């Protein structure tokens, strides 16, 4: 069950990224209105640092790492987008003052990635409830109808970008896809309603297929899987206890592999136990 504990660790964090030298991963946390980064070595937590204060407590954050980019996107305590870049000279995180004032829905979440040119791409929910895509900070309203505060998950597939959300139409997981030329189209991931309140979810491709699995963390710390098997299946894989330990249920035996993707400059789907 080590793969489920690894998945639990990711879902309990605000976001993260693989270590550039393959030495585990960086995980972000937004507890008590502060943003911290912790280095998970693969066995234990190593160094940690305070990135910023005045962030929205328990909000998501995105860690974007590439050869020439080290950037964190988060939500401020006043519900605006905030970008922090690492200053190698001063060895500290500093606010990117070139970013315009962008308001986020009071319950809104975000997801972010880099394309192959290291251009920043952010998706967030605006105060009107729309999903907005920022391509190098230029906004496009997406053809989507998310519930208020829907978690967001992004999957990069070659030159395509998939953005997943919970739809207000049917409470199913939907997604919109950006084609290489920039057009957007919408799809339903699986016709399986999610009635539980979801804090965060991760969506990842199933091997080399065109299908996706979703792993969801509920407000009462249940770990769910939504998969396209048959007409769509939702499984309770287990529960996360007060110490962050995954306690498996019987359905966990039906889920032998867990696939997750850290969105980075060259994303590759991997088994959760290997990221």
The radius of gyration over CA amounts to 17 Å
What portion of the residues fall into strands of 2 or more residues? over 45%
**Helix fraction?**
under 10%
Write out the strand line-up for the largest beta sheet, numbering strands in chain order.
17-18-19-20-21
Q: How many strand units? A: 23
Structural class: mainly beta
Query: What's the order of the H and E elements?
Result: HEEEEEEEEEEEEEEEEEEEEEEE
User: Averaged pLDDT, please?
Assistant: 89
* Overall outline: globular
Biggest β-sheet description: 5 strands, antiparallel
Q: Kindly, what is the distance between the CA atoms of the first and last residues, rounded to a whole number of angstroms?
A: 15 Å
Poorly predicted runs of 5 or more residues = 261-275
* Tally of alpha and pi helices: 1
Blueprint (SSEs and pairs):
Layout (H helix, E strand, L loop, with lengths): L1 H11 L2 E4 L6 E5 L4 E7 L4 E9 L8 E5 L2 E7 L5 E7 L4 E4 L14 E5 L5 E6 L5 E5 L2 E4 L11 E5 L2 E7 L6 E6 L5 E7 L7 E8 L6 E7 L3 E6 L5 E8 L5 E3 L10 E2 L9 E2 L4
Structure description:
The protein is mainly β. It is built from 1 helix and 23 strands. The protein has one helix at about 1-10; strands spanning about 15-20, 25-30, 35-40, 45-55, 60-65, 70-75, 80-85, 90-95, 110-115, 120-125, 130-135, 140, 155, 160-165, 175-180, 185-190, 200-205, 210-220, 220-225, 235-240, 245-250, 260, 270. The strands form 6 sheets. The protein has a 5-stranded antiparallel beta sheet with strand order 17-18-19-20-21. The protein has a 4-stranded antiparallel beta sheet with strand order 1-2-3-4, with helices on one face. A 4-stranded antiparallel beta sheet has the order 5-6-7-8, with no helix packed on it. A hairpin with a 6-residue loop joins strand 1 (about 15-20) and strand 2 (about 25-30). The longest helix is centred in the N-terminal third of the chain and has 11 residues, at about 1-10. It is globular. The chain starts with a helix and ends with a strand.
């Amino acid at each position: 069950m080590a793969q489920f504990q690894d998945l639990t660790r990711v879902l309990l964090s605000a976001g993260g990224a693989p270590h550039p030298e393959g030495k585990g991963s960086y995980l972000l946390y937004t507890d008590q209105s502060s943003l911290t980064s912790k280095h998970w070595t693969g066995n234990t937590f190593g160094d940690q640092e305070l990135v910023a204060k005045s962030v929205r407590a328990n909000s998501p954050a995105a860690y974007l790492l590439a050869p020439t980019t080290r950037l964190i996107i988060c939500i401020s305590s006043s519900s605006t987008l905030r970008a922090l870049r690492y200053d190698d000279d001063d060895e500290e995180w500093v606010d990117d003052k070139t970013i315009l004032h962008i308001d986020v829905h009071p319950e809104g979440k975000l997801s972010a990635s880099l394309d192959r040119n290291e251009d920043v791409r952010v998706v967030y929910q605006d105060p009107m409830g729309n999903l907005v895509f920022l391509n190098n900070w230029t906004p496009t309203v997406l053809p989507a109808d998310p519930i208020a505060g829907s978690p967001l998950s992004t999957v990069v597939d070659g030159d395509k970008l998939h953005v997943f959300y919970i739809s207000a139409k049917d409470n199913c997981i939907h997604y919109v896809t950006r084609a290489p030329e920039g057009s957007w189209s919408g799809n339903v991931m699986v016709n399986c309603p999610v009635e539980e309140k979801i804090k965060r979810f991760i969506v990842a491709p199933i091997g080399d297929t065109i299908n996706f699995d979703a792993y969801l963390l509920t407000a009462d710390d249940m770990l769910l899987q939504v998969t396209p098997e048959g007409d769509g299946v939702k499984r309770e894989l287990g529960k996360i206890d007060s110490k962050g330990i995954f306690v498996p249920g019987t359905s966990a035996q039906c889920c032998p592999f867990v696939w997750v993707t850290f969105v980075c400059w060259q994303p590759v789907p991997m088994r959760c136990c290997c990221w």
